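DM from R.C. (forwarded with permission)

"hey, sorry to bug you on a friday — could you get me a structure for this? deadline for the figure draft is monday and I only need the backbone to look sensible"
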Amino acid sequence: MSGMLIIPHVGAKIRICHKVSALPFCAFHDMSISSLSRRLAVLFMSFFRSGIVSLFVASALTSQAMAKTECNTASDGQIEISMSEVGVAVGYMWGRGTLTYGGQRYPISVKGGGAFALGGAKVTGTGCIRNLSRLVDFEGTYWTIGGDVAVGGGPAGIVMENAKGVDMSFSGHASGAHLSGQISRLYFKIDAF
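My reply, with the result:
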């Protein structure tokens, strides 16, 4: 299964390519969602057997453990967010949520992407914002290095920081079939600012 690439197409057909030599061999297959999920699960297991994602899994577990920290002080902001992620080679994430800071609630949006992702997932959860001295410092690009593997669902965690020194730790639940191991760049914006 080495070198397998799944490329979705419009309609009910899926093109599956196996890279046997320098040129890939491709064939079209009719697949239901459950059949596609089974094939993605087999693909993920082949990555585990070859040891390719062990670094990503270790990074994801570390990020998840760090993200489970509680908001400690009244000055910490809190975030509730729901995000979706899709990817074939390059991943894209988007979502909406709420930032609570200084006793006020602000609607926020997030979008961005990462270097490697396969499949799709929905992530919902909560998090803490630290080192936020002014509300305007929340907006901007946050960077994270990590990875995640999920087939069906499970816990999710992410730790990020922006250029202004604002830290965000997020934990929640992911549902879907996806594999991601990436350097991600996510842009957070306060919608009613």
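R.C.: lifesaver. The helical segments are 33-50, 54-67.
me: no worries. Residues 147 and 154 are 14 Å apart (CA to CA).
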